[in-house]
Amino acid sequence: MQHMNSLRNIDLNLLVVLDALLVERHVSRTALRLNMSQPAVSHALARLRALLDDPLLVRGGGGLSPTLRALELSKPLAEALAQIRTVLGPDGFEPSRTRHAFRLAMSDYGAEILLPTLLRDMARSAPGVDLAVTQLSREGMVAGVMDGDIDLGLGVFPHLPDQVHSEPLFNDDHACLVDRSTLPSGSRMMDLETYLARPHALVAVHGEASTEIDEALHAAGHARRVALVIPHWSVAPKLIAGTDLVLTVARNSLKSASRDRRLAVLPPPIPLPSIGFRQISHRRRQSDPALRWLREMIVRSASEAR
């Protein structure tokens, strides 16, 4: 009953600030998200602390950490605000007139495909919206979405927790890149025995070891030797010429490499699963009008780019 009495004294604007603070866990990022000044966010947090008689967020780890009370409030508050936004409709975000910043995570492969079209579209329809793009591992993107450190993760996600929502953007196929001089003259194929006997290059952020390629090989009773792990899709093809390395990656990441006469793009010698590129976000933010707008922009950009 005491909590109910204290909540009666909190207006909706304060609850919006609290929800954003619990997602961002940073005053300046919250201010940017809500188009407020940092002093205004700090003042709102002070009022919330007084009204709820709890610190709510305390400094630590380079940002703000929620108290137990704040964690108890987080989910019901997000759900309540999502319902309110749904009732009021999508007019809570006007991209043509709003200053806003989004934090995305994707590889250079995803950035090369999506960002040129997305940025052109945003320049026309949302000149005040900014993007900050980082590169994280798959696990890092999922954790970032769960913790509120990033708004969207874009990549390939075979396994996701229930709290994460995902949307398909496009599919790609695997292809192998090798030095042409290491193949028999005129060959356009590589048999499985040769494929397994040669060293391999792997594109993986933070040295991730298991990939869909290796899972498919293991399922068929095979294994490959990964001699090089590198985090950059754009650099990897440039390292193949003059070596006996095999690079097995998304076919569309090899467009530039396919024009290099020293290199050959071949089909994999074993069936590999299609590469489903997706965007992920937290389920509690599905009714956030700003994030919904960005997700729709990215879906359109992916369609145009493909």
Textual characterization of the structure:
40% of the residues lie in helices and 22% in strands. It is an alpha/beta fold. It folds into three domains: 87 residues, Orthogonal Bundle (Arc Repressor Mutant, subunit A), CATH 1.10.10; 78 residues, 3-Layer(aba) Sandwich (D-Maltodextrin-Binding Protein, domain 2); 100 residues, Periplasmic binding protein-like II (D-Maltodextrin-Binding Protein, domain 2), CATH 3.40.190.10. Helix 2 crosses helix 4, helix 2 crosses helix 5 and helix 6 packs across helix 10. It is elongated. The N terminus is likely disordered.
CATH level-four homologous superfamily name of the largest domain: Periplasmic binding protein-like II
Number of strands: 12
Structural class comes to alpha/beta
CATH class of the largest domain: Alpha Beta
Task: Enter the CATH topology name of the largest domain.
Answer: D-Maltodextrin-Binding Protein, domain 2
The coarse overall form would be elongated
Global mean pLDDT: 87
Task: Summarize the main sheet.
Answer: 5 strands, mixed
Proper CATH architecture of the largest domain: 3-Layer(aba) Sandwich
Q: Going across the major beta sheet, what is the strand order?
A: 4-3-5-12-6
Q: Between the first and last Cα atoms, what is the distance in angstroms?
A: 56 Å
Instruction: Work out the strand percent.
Output: 15-25%
Q: What's the alpha carbon Rg, rounded to whole Å?
A: 24 Å
Order of helical and strand elements:
HHHHEEHEHEHEEEHEHEEEEH
Number of helices: 10
